[in-house]
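Hey team,

Filing this mostly as a record. A colleague (T.K.) asked me to run one chain through the structure pipeline before their review meeting, and I want the input and output archived in the tracker in case anyone asks later how it was produced. No errors, nothing strange. Just documentation.

Input sequence:
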Amino acid sequence: MSKFSNEKINKLSAYVPGEQPKDKKYIKLNTNESPFPPSPLAVRLAKKELKKVRLYPDPDCSELISEIAKTVGVKSENVIVSNGSDEVLNFAFIAYADENTPAIFPDISYGFYKVFAGVNGVPYEEIALKDDFSLDISDYEGKKGVVFIANPNAPTGLEISLEDIEKLLSSNPERVVVIDEAYVDFGGISATSLIEKYDNLLVTQTFSKSRSMAGARLGFGVASEKIIEDLKKVKYSTNPYNVNRVTAVMGVGALRDSEYFSKNVNAIINNRAYTIEELSKLGFTCTNSKTNFVFAKCDKISGEELYLKLKDKGILVRHFNKDRISDYIRVTVGSLAEMKAFVTAVQEILGAKI
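Output structure:
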């Protein structure tokens, strides 16, 4: 750190992204990217829009917001777009949490929640998941603060029901509940249907996973009109042009290309089932993932050793050196060929240990 950094920055523990090594060619199954290219329609629109990049984008992203609203089934006034869903999550920390209103989230979940709390000077409470990694809604009832829940959760892949989300919303209507749905398209059920019923709900989603746009950085939030007004106030006080014009038109194309989207999502769901089945045959325990990744462990080998041996074989997975989950690896679901290569590598690694 420089001699100029303040105490808040000195104490900050930054988010650690999945590694992106360049020493050789890897099968990348560590950052939950899609194995498929973006929508052909999205790419065509992007190429045309490149001719206009000398001009600022529409700060309201009106066409994109209209397309999102139509897809989700809400009004345009219920939508805000952002530079990845991380940005709208940060907007929520800025708008609703402070030294008197803590952030509340599970102890095993998306690592950025803790980082956002730190960078915004917000106290936080981590609530332990159960031994089976399930979330007990009753642990959150009666708590004062802004609740952040990834649903389905990362890295466990587990989902909570809409009924549980409603319990959470109705138990304290004076607090905001943020449901982070980065992985909802892979078998989860979205809470966006509850927006009209609960004015304390904010749902976030991303184009990074199911719509193959991780490198474009596009996300959005869905909430009551009043909450969207709050978040837009933060946006226009920090970066009015937070979504560039090429990304915005790609988002429009990705949403309109629904057949391509459905085909890719179904392929990932099928490849996930294949991977879980094959790992189970090898003695692995896998969670009931509703995401585009598999969370698995094997008593024959530690999570760290398996991660390192797979890396030696040119396959990257994610390992978290954290209590309770250090024996697990998180494996992004790629193409069927990639998952077969992964399974073969695991078989070879386990065979060498016997």
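Quick notes for T.K.: The chain has a mean pLDDT of 96. The chain is about 40% helix and 15% strand.
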